[in-house]
């Protein structure tokens, strides 16, 4: 299991140096990553499509669920992450929060942990094979460690929160049945009253 703490000082330097060079191209790079993710995941494609449709009618504020906003958020995420690499706890917490914030999509859109794996595979391929990252062996190795850690923590945050929501949903169902029973309606029984 990869972790931020396992990155050496020289690997952190290589990450920051390569990110500075990669940064101007980062929006296009992440757009390509998300487009590839859409190809391998119909769920992601549907989420981005629905968000784009909603965004077309809502001009008041930016819809966080669109691909373009996700591109901006990923760039900002790596900007912020690379500045705080020495604070392992802060980095891990940030990653887990991002993963857990997507848990609601498990219930509403069929988002699964496999999507995180696909995102990791595509990101690893696109970023680690980029000519800027390939210039030094240290940078390529550091990006592989960092991306593995990011995806592990995204997935961990997502799985933990999604499990909580599944457990919570199972716990509330009996409560609903109890409440219905208290007012004289049995679960699964349809009561029809005669019209006056």
From TrEMBL:
Q: Name the Gene Ontology molecular function terms of this record.
A: heme binding; metal ion binding; oxygen binding; oxygen carrier activity
Say yes or no: keyword Acetylation present.
no
Which Pfam families would you find in this protein's record? Globin (PF00042)
Query: Which of UniProt's keywords are assigned here?
Result: Heme, Iron, Metal-binding, Oxygen transport, Transport
Domain (Globin) ranges: 6-159
Annotated InterPro entries? Globin, Globin-like_OT, Globin-like_sf, Globin/Proto, Mb-like_M
Asked if Transport is a keyword of the record, the answer is yes
Gene3D superfamilies assigned:
Globins
The family line of this record is: Belongs to the globin family.
Record's protein name? GLOBIN domain-containing protein
Supply the source organism for this entry.
Angiostrongylus cantonensis (Rat lungworm)
